[in-house]
């Protein structure tokens, strides 16, 4: 596929994902989504899978459950109400889908967040060195971040980096994800220490970007479970752990380190969330 055609396909598919994310509870019929992307409905499901790496139904399910997790955190709303808000006809079908995807029931996640699930005992402070990264700036709706990682893997393999040395996947987050206009995300591989010149030239030719994240003190929390719970866990860290920690957020991006191999069952995935922190400045003497 030509680069210009591939970019056009991605932009058209992004419109579909944006529409699903804007109204997760809607029916989202295949023919209407295909029309939104200006593709034939007879072939849309194949084009969608080729561009995104997942079926359209899987995207809809993932977005609905991600939105549900955000609604459940710190909320006393009845589960049946949240089920309807994300497009499920009954609390039973919603609870079944949520547990299959997250290994938690909706009520368990509510209780976890209300009990300050990211409590002081689960968070540790780490001093990290600068982190060299190689990756792509995500473009499009946040729900397409997994697709950016798939594209990163393909480009890194083409450049000869993917699999050259042990590397972890990382996400660099800046801004408020609730306001996509003010939020940026960098999908990356953590570069090995021994980068060679030939590899660097191949990276440049593949269109990948190099970035180094500043070192310093981070609050580290290990999330064991599906990536759907990441945003909800960030909310717990900011609302429950941070105010009681004696620290304040530092002016560095937050990091997500994805520790699991591709293909790991969602319930077994492990993600390290790294919140940059510092001790508060002493107030000026009056």
TrEMBL record:
InterPro entries (alphabetical): AraC_E-bd, GyrI-like, Homeodomain-like_sf, HTH_AraC, Reg_factor_effector_dom_sf, SmbC-like
Protein name: AraC family transcriptional regulator
One GO MF term attached to the UniProt entry: sequence-specific DNA binding
Protein keywords: Transcription, Transcription regulation
Domain HTH araC/xylS-type: 14-112
Pfam families membership: GyrI-like, HTH_18
């Amino acid at each position: 596929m030509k680069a210009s055609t591939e970019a056009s396909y991605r932009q058209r598919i992004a419109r579909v994902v944006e529409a699903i994310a804007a109204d997760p509870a809607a029916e989202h019929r295949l023919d209407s989504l295909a029309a939104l992307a200006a593709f034939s409905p007879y072939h849309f499901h194949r084009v969608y899978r080729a561009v995104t790496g997942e079926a359209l139904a899987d995207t809809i399910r993932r977005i609905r459950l991600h939105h549900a997790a955000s609604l459940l955190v710190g909320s006393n709303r009845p589960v049946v109400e949240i089920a309807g808000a994300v497009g499920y006809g009954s609390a039973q079908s919603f609870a079944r889908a949520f547990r299959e995807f997250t290994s938690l029931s909706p009520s368990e996640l509510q209780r976890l967040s209300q009990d300050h699930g990211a409590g002081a005992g689960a968070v540790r402070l780490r001093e990290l060195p600068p982190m060299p990264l190689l990756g792509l700036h995500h473009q499009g709706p946040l729900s397409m971040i997994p697709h950016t990682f798939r594209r990163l893997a393909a480009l890194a393999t083409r450049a000869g980096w993917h699999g050259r040395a042990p590397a972890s996947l990382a996400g660099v987050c800046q801004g408020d994800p609730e306001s996509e206009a003010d939020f940026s995300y960098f999908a990356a591989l953590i570069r090995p220490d021994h980068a060679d010149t030939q590899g660097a030239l191949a990276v440049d030719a593949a269109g990948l970007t190099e970035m180094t994240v500043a070192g310093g003190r981070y609050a580290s929390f290990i999330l064991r479970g599906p990536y759907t719970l990441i945003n909800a866990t960030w909310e717990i860290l900011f609302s429950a752990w941070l105010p009681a920690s004696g620290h304040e957020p530092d002016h560095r991006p937050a990091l997500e380190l994805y520790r699991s191999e591709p293909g790991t069952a969602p319930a077994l995935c492990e993600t390290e969330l790294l919140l940059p922190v510092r001790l508060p400045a002493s107030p000026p003497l009056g």
